[in-house]
């Protein structure tokens, strides 16, 4: 059954009583035809003029969204590249910093070793100089003691003998007195 047949059948069954009721509740064939014609005209006008504009606006919007997505993707790729570059530079900077610290540590250790070696050499030089000074002072003191002993021996002998001794006697007495004294314990060696 077609639509037109259905509409005609409906119209025939409609009674006079139905015609007096609300036109929206009870369909009227004429109204239906005019409604259908208005719908078709509106559809054709919209299809001819509105849909291309709507489709074009939707296409523009879609292109704009796609461009925004592409731009965002490009920006994300650029940001990822920059982040990778930053990380690489950061690793390089850390490696350089570790190298600098390592070199500074080695230089400090080398400087410390050199300072200790220099200090040891200087200490040894000072000890040797002090030893030489002590030995020289010891020899000088022993010589002074010998001279004093010789003078005292001569004086003591003159007083005991009450006569003046000649030079040969003085030498002999001094040498005998010196032989009796042990100067080796004063100098730290066995020399007289």
Give a quick precis of the structure:
With 192 residues, the protein is mainly α.
Structural features, described:
The chain is mainly α. It has 5 helices and no strands. α3 (29-161) crosses α4 (167-180). The chain is rod-shaped, with a radius of gyration of 66 Å. The chain starts with a helix and ends in a 5-residue tail after the last helix. 0% of the residues are buried. The mean pLDDT is 82.
Map the helices and strands.
Layout: H1 3-13, H2 16-19, H3 29-161, H4 167-180, H5 184-187
What is the total tally of β strands? 0
Nearest-angstrom radius of gyration? 66 Å
Characterize the overall form: rod-shaped
Main beta sheet = none
Percentage of residues in strands: under 5%
Structural class: mainly alpha
How far apart are the first and last residues' alpha carbons, in Å? 158 Å
């Amino acid at each position: 059954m077609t639509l037109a047949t259905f509409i005609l059948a409906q119209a025939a069954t409609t009674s006079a009583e139905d015609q007096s009721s609300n036109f929206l509740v009870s369909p009227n064939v004429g109204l239906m035809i005019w409604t259908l014609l208005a719908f078709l005209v509106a559809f054709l006008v919209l299809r001819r003029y509105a849909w291309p504009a709507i489709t074009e606006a939707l296409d523009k919007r879609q292109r704009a969204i796609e461009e925004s997505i592409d731009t965002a993707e490009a920006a994300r790729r650029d940001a990822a590249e920059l982040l990778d570059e930053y990380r690489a530079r950061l690793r390089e900077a850390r490696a350089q910093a570790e190298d600098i610290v390592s070199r500074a540590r080695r230089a400090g250790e080398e400087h410390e070793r050199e300072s200790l070696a220099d200090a040891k050499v200087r200490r040894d030089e000072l000890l040797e100089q002090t030893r030489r000074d002590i030995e020289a002072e010891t020899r000088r003191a022993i010589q002074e003691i010998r001279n004093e002993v010789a003078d005292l021996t001569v004086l003591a002998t003159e007083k005991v003998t009450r006569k003046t001794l000649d030079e040969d006697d003085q030498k002999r007495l001094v040498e005998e007195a010196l032989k009796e004294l042990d100067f080796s314990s004063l100098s730290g060696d066995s020399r007289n």
